[in-house]
Amino acid sequence: MRLDMGLGKANLLLWARMVVLWGMPNLPLSVVSGEILGSSPPRFLGREFITAFMQNGLQQTLNSDFRLLITGYAPATSITISMKKPALRVSLQVNAGQTATVIIPPNAEMVGAKIFDNTVIVRADYDVSVLSLNSKPNSADTTPVYPVQSLGIEYYVVTPTMSMDRYGEVAIVAWEGPTTVDVHLKGAVIFQGKTHLGGRRLTIKLEANQAVQLQSPVDISGTKIISQKPVAVYVGHTCVTRSIQCDHVSEQLLPVSSWGTTFIVPPLSFEMQSDIVYISTSQATEVAVQVGMSKSSRELQAAKAVQYRIPSSNALYFSASAGIQVIFFCDGGIKGNIRYNPFFMAIPAVSSYCQSYHIYGHKEFENYALIIAKTLESAGVTVNKRPLRNVLWRPVAGTEYSWAEYSLGKGFQVHNVEHASSPFGLLSVGIGNQKAYGSPAICASDPCRTLNCREKETCRIKNGQAICFHDYMGTCQGSLTSQYYTFDGLTLDVQDTCTYTIAKYCGRDPTLEPFTIKEKNSNMGKQDSSNLGLTTIHVYGYNISIYKGESGEVRINDKSVQPAVTLEAGKSSLPEQETSHPEAEISGSRWGNSDCGCDVTLAAVFGEHLGWLP
C-alpha cells in the first residue's frame, strides 16, 4: 500500500402525533406510527468508511491502478487504511484542505462471484472525504465512498448490459455483522459457481467487513436488496461496450432513504450521441420529465429501472411523486482525437446540492466540471476562489436553474468550487483515450457538522439547512371500547372508572415543554360513546378538558369554549365566526420527553355536535 500527498485549496425516540376525533362513527383515538417519511440527503464527510474494488475487465492484473483520494477538513487528522485479507495497515496524517492519495494493491480487486474478505476500511479521528478510482489500462471509473452513517438497508440495482462476454455486477459490503441480505432478483445471476434465476430471492449471510459480488450476463436492473443492517452497495460492469471499446463502469448507490424527487441531468457538450439516464423506483411513482419545451409524464411501477435518452444539447429535468434514483450512463464517443469509453455516474437530487465542493482532476484525462446553479446566482460560483471565465450558461427549462461545462485541464489536481450563499450541483467528468470516468463531486460543506442533535435524532439537510429529525414515530391508540394500544405495541383492557395517564413529560430537557394527557372512563358496562368519558390535556399552563358524552363540552382552564380554538406556545385565539366543521388544535414549539423517549404533537378535530356517535 503506497500513498502520495497532494495539497488542495485549501435505542428509540418515539415521536407521537395524537389526533382525537369526535363526530366520526366508530373512529378510534389513534396516533399514526412508523418511520418518519422523507429523504435524508447523503453526507460525504465522515470518520468511518468501507469500500471494495469490483472486478475490472476479465482478470486480475498487476498493472491495475486502485487508489483512494482522502481529503482532510481539520488540522492534524489521523487516518488509518486497512484490509483484512491480505492483512494490510497504513497510517497517515492530513491537514485541512490536504488530499492524500493512497495506492491500493492489486489483490484488493474482487474477481468472480463469491464472498470476499478484501474490503478496504478507512478510519479517521476527524471528518474526511473519500473518492475511489478503479483503473487499468484503457478502463477506469471513479465513485465517491459514502461514510457508514450514510449507508442503508434498501437498495435498487442498475446494471448496463451491452455485451454477452462480460458481466454486469453488484457488490454488497457489510460494515457490521453478521447480517442477512435478501436479493430479489430481476434476472439470473452467478454466485459461488451456480446460476440463480430471476424472480427468486437469494439470501446471503455476511460477517462484518465482508463483501459479496454477484455477476450476470443479463440486465438485472430493478433487483431489490434488503439487509438486516446497513450495507454499502456498488453496481457496474466488468467492461461494457457501446459505440467505442469496452470500459469498466462502477458507482456506489444511495439507499432508498436518501433518494430525492427532483433532478437535473445536464448533457455533455462534446457528446454527439444520445446518452442514457436510468430512473429507478421503489414504489409506484409518477415521473414527469421536461426537455426544452417538451414535457411528458408516466406512471412507473415499483422496482423498475426505466431508460430515458438525453439529447446532446438540452438538460433533462425530472420531478417525481416519490423518491427516485437517477443514474447517468455515457456510452462513449469521439472528441477531436480522443476516443473515450463509457462511464457510470449517479446524479444528485436538487435537495442535496451544497455550497462547497472538492473536485479532482486525474492524470491522463481531460477533466471537466458540470455545474448546475440557480440562474440568478450563477455569477457567484468560484473555482479556487476565482470567478468562472468564458463559461456559457444554458437555462434548464421548467426550473430556476442553468447549467454550464467548465474545463479543469489535464492532470491530477484538487479544486475547490464554491458559492457564498446559494447551493448548487456539481458533477466530475473526465475523458481520455479509451477510458473515461464520471461521479458526483464531493460536497465539502456539511451543515450537520456544527448541529448537535439529541440522542435518537438524525440531522438531515433540507433546502441546504441542517435540521434535527426524530428517528421514528410512535402510536398510542384508544378505541370506543375499553381497549388501549400502547406505544410499545401492547393491548390493555381497562375495565374501571379510574383516570389513566396516556402520555406525559418526565424529562429535564429545558427545550421541551412539559405536558400530560389523561383519560377517564365512565359509565362502565355501556358499550357506547360515553364509555370514554373525559380527556384532560395539560400543556403551556393550560388545562384542556374534553367531555365526550352527550354535551361534547370543551373547557380550557375550566371555562367553556366554542371550537375552533388554537393554542400555540401559550397563545390562544378564537374564530370570528363558526364554521360547519369547527376545529381545536394544540400545536407549537417542541414539547415532549427526552428521557422517556416521547415527543408529542396534538391536534384535535371536533364534529359540529361534539359527541361520540355510536
What attributes does this structure have?
single chain, 614 residues, mainly beta, 2 domains, 9-stranded mixed beta sheet, 8-stranded antiparallel beta sheet, 57 strands, 53% strand, disordered C terminus
Largest sheet: 9 strands, mixed
Overall mean confidence score, pLDDT = 81
Instruction: Compute the separation of the termini in Å.
Output: 75 Å
Principal-axis shape equals globular
Strand content: over 45%
Strand tally is 57
Structural class: mainly beta
Low-confidence stretches: 6-38, 569-614
Number of helices: 0
* CA-based gyration radius: 28 Å
Estimate nothing, just give the exact number of structural domains.
Answer: 2
Give the fraction of residues assigned to helices. under 10%
Blueprint of the fold:
Blueprint: E1 2-7, E2 14-21, E3 30-31, E4 34-35, E5 46-51, E6 65-72, E7 77-83, E8 88-94, E9 98-104, E10 115-116, E11 120-136, E12 139-145, E13 152-156, E14 168-174, E15 179-184, E16 189-191, E17 194-196, E18 201-206, E19 211-216, E20 224-240, E21 247-252, E22 260-265, E23 275-281, E24 285-291, E25 294-300, E26 305-310, E27 316-330, E28 333-335, E29 338-340, E30 343-346, E31 356-361, E32 366-374, E33 382-383, E34 386-387, E35 394-395, E36 401-410, E37 413-418, E38 425-432, E39 435-440, E40 442-443, E41 457-462, E42 465-470, E43 472-474, E44 477-478, E45 483-485, E46 491-493, E47 499-504, E48 515-521, E49 532-539, E50 542-547, E51 554-556, E52 559-560, E53 565-568, E54 571-573, E55 583-587, E56 592-593, E57 598-605
Parallel strand pairs: 2-43, 2-57, 53-55
Antiparallel strand pairs: 1-9, 2-3, 4-43, 5-11, 6-9, 6-11, 7-8, 7-11, 10-19, 11-12, 13-20, 14-19, 14-20, 15-18, 15-20, 16-17, 20-21, 22-27, 23-26, 23-27, 24-25, 24-27, 27-30, 28-29, 31-37, 31-40, 32-36, 32-38, 33-34, 33-37, 35-36, 38-39, 41-42, 44-45, 45-46, 47-48, 48-49, 49-50, 50-51, 51-52, ...
